[in-house]
Amino acid sequence: MNGHTRSKQSFETEISDLRNEIKEIRAREKLNPATDDIAEGERCRTLVNDIPEYLYSIKFDNGKILTTFHSPRCEEITGYLPADYVQNPYLWLEMVYEKDREKVQDFIRGLKEPLHCKSIEHRIVHKNGSVRWVVNMTTVHLDNQGSILRQSGFLIDVTERREEAEKNLLISNENRRNSLFDGLTGLYNRRGFWELGELQLRVASRINQPVLLFFVDVDKLKKTNDAFGHHAGDTLIMGLAEILKQTFRESDLIARIGGDEFTVLTMETGPDSSEQLIDRLRINIENKNRDSSDALALSVTVGGSRYNLRDSDTITDMVDRADKDMYIQKRNKYAL
Description:
This protein has 336 residues and is an alpha+beta fold.
């Protein structure tokens, strides 16, 4: 019985000590109730500071901005300090490049799925005045009526990537141009003529418009090169290119498809348009030759073909017929 009494007293003593310890813990919590909250806050701030992206959060009330938060990385990307955004809650929108601002606002208004992150690529104006490209990843929190309560997200500077992409695009466009144009005359080359010519034939068929193709060959270019050098031959080639541009419309497709071979694709405007264009070309060549020596006078032979809307002609078909016609004209010219 005495053992039982001692066990009971010992148990009551332990309970009393435990209660006293709990009271002391509670007393300490009352003296510093936010200890855990402060520690958690410090951990969050450390995490935000360590994240390489520029984080932001914007609180709204009936469409108006209440408060904004911008992580320290904002200075590196935008030049502005977090305090600048606190002072001017609309700075995040004002720094958006003016021509992109409406696009960004439309994008934000279109965010209807809460907590569903979407991205938009746009420009911002850095504090120093330079223009930078950013990827803006953002999501929204909505109230019961579907209005935005908070918009949160992050920005990544992609200026270097955009500039590299634009540089590559310029190089690609230049390579594309070089692949379609003749380096000596600036006219389309064979590839350019075939690609654009097929397109023009499809357009002509769609609008029910007949098309003419002229094959223009420089006479005796090899003899000119042999007698006076390739520079003299190049002068004749460039001279003919300029004459063709004077003779035909800007909308006509003019190309140098070989060393001394040129082609022109033009819409037929009337029953006599072929003869009229050839006469105009002859007159323009005669006018140029008045200013040239007889040795460097330009002479050409022209063949032609017509695209009939009922036919299934290709550019190759038309060039072949015009080339054969040119050969007949040249044979007749030099057989006399």
